[in-house]
TrEMBL record:
Its cofactor is pyridoxal 5'-phosphate. This is Cysteine desulfurase. NCBIfam families: sufS (TIGR01979). One of its GO terms (biological process) is cysteine metabolic process. Catalyzes the removal of elemental sulfur and selenium atoms from L-cysteine, L-cystine, L-selenocysteine, and L-selenocystine to produce L-alanine. The keyword Cell wall biogenesis/degradation does not apply. The keyword NAD does not apply. Its EC number is 2.8.1.7. Belongs to the class-V pyridoxal-phosphate-dependent aminotransferase family. Csd subfamily. Keywords: Pyridoxal phosphate, Transferase. InterPro entries: Aminotrans_V_dom, Aminotrans_V_PyrdxlP_BS, Cys_dSase_SufS, Cysteine_dSase, PyrdxlP-dep_Trfase, PyrdxlP-dep_Trfase_major, PyrdxlP-dep_Trfase_small. Coiled coil: none annotated.
Amino acid sequence: MPDINKIREDFPILKRKVNGYPLIYLDNAATSQTPKQVIDTIVGYYSNYNANIHRGVHTLSQEATEKYEEARIKIQKHFNATKPYEIIFTSGTTHGINLVATGFSDFLKEGDEIIVSALEHHSNIVPWQMLCERTGAVLKVIPMNEDGELIMSEYDKILSPNTKLVFCNHISNALGTINPVQEIIDKAHQFGAAVLIDGAQAAPHLKIDVQALDVDFYVASAHKMCGPTGVGMLYGKEEWLKKLPPYQGGGEMIAEVTFEKTTYADLPHKFEAGTPNICGGIAFGAAIDYLNSIDLDEIKAYEDELLAYATEKLSSILGLKIYGTSENKTSVISFNIEGIHPYDIGSIVDKLGIAVRTGHHCAQPIMDYYKIPGTVRASFAFYNTKEEIDNFVEAVNRAQLMLS
Ligand SMILES: *Cc1c(COP(=O)(O)O)cnc(C)c1O
């Protein structure tokens, strides 16, 4: 069991007050908070070795390049990729998905099919719709049930030799459901389809082993795993990354340029046009070091405890309904109280210093399924405590009294 009070000391923001109350930050599924180890890395970069990478002969440039490439190796090891160049730095999950979706334009034709799940974030639906428009491929959806789980027997029915690509999030950001990605990957491979898994919500909570999963592509964002915003990673199997065309043209991604023809650089540079988020990449590496210093298994066990505790406490509120009731879920609770708009609850608890998210969580199809405009979503991280949950539940009770 990690020492939570000691861990909280690492997060300067947890000492601040909001509207006169100590901050209770329960919006971790939107972005996580940043430990001082990562903040120090960012300050250290700009104070000591800020320089452009890969091109310079001077010392600062070499130092920055070394740290940036070290970070890539940290990410590679963390996700257990075979080679460092199978890790592409992106600006985040959305960028990684678009890179793959755009690249697949060359591989699809009319009548091909792409399967996505009903639990997707908008960033995972729109790029596929655009890809279908470009190529004439057809989008198919794995439906969900009342508990917020994918109906896997329906997946079996829509898989076919026409399936070229399957896309699913590892964990739903709106409901917290952990999807059976191994089964999804294995079955897709039986039909020769490639699989891209969105790990934006899974990477902060689970140990991910891309080789064990045998997944073709895996994406994540640093800012949901204690790192900074504006940086993320795309893992791709070497054979796929070699096949995919570059996403953007620019500096760094070329081998040779003449006006007649340009040849592209080797991996990973083929996909990293222009000056990247150098500091962000290095800080991403520091965030991974930080998570590993606590141990993801211990984090998961503690967060499960918080989830069970909060679920029980919230369930005692009359008229409160939780959406997403799978046995297999992470520390996200989406709920509504009968007769009250989620936005009103969010505003009142904010007055008491508590940050939760309200709305459709970029997952409108899920809201449509439940026929609701949105939910209040509380999402917990390992630096949250049971006392914070007690205060939150009391605040929700107060909101209910005021609003009904
Ligand atoms: C947050 C999130 C995204 C988008 O991540 P960005 O960092 O905004 O690109 C995509 N999918 C899921 C499941 C998410 O939680």
